[in-house]
Amino acid sequence: MPLVERARRGDREAFDLLVERHLQHVWAVVWRILRHHEDTEDVVQEVFLAAFQALPRYRGESRLSTWLHRIAVTRALNHLDRKEEKMRRALRSVEDVTDRLETGADGPSAWVLRETPSPLQALEADELVRRLASCLSRLPAAWRLVLTLRDVDARSYEEIAGLAGLALGTVRSRLSRARLALRQCVAGDAP
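RE: above sequence
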């Protein structure tokens, strides 16, 4: 009996052999779309789980590799859509914070000074808030997202990695670069 037919009938060893035969191809397909190691691992697992669950409905009208290829592309694109939606939601949160900074919805001086400021202090605080908002808006979106999630929303590195779909090292690196760029911009060392 052919391997695919045995796997369709629930033979776990036969399915494991199919996974072994097609793993490299499925991995390559998903990697070309995602270009992220951990995400690729997750999606490849999803692909084979989906294939295992759908195998009884596989009619054999196309080669198994073609069928798996279609599942892999669909799962990888769905993963990208979910990731992009998370980024859009997080960026909206960043934009809300930037708007609050610019419009002073919480009182711009409240972010900088907790006492009743003198007119000069209030003017300086407002200027600092405007400069900070301007510099924040100039950061690359990926840096701005990580910086806002960490320094404004007080999220942990792990939470940020999960929300943005990034590796922990990438979160730390982007945060470091964002803070440096923001400091330089506010200090007037950068445009």
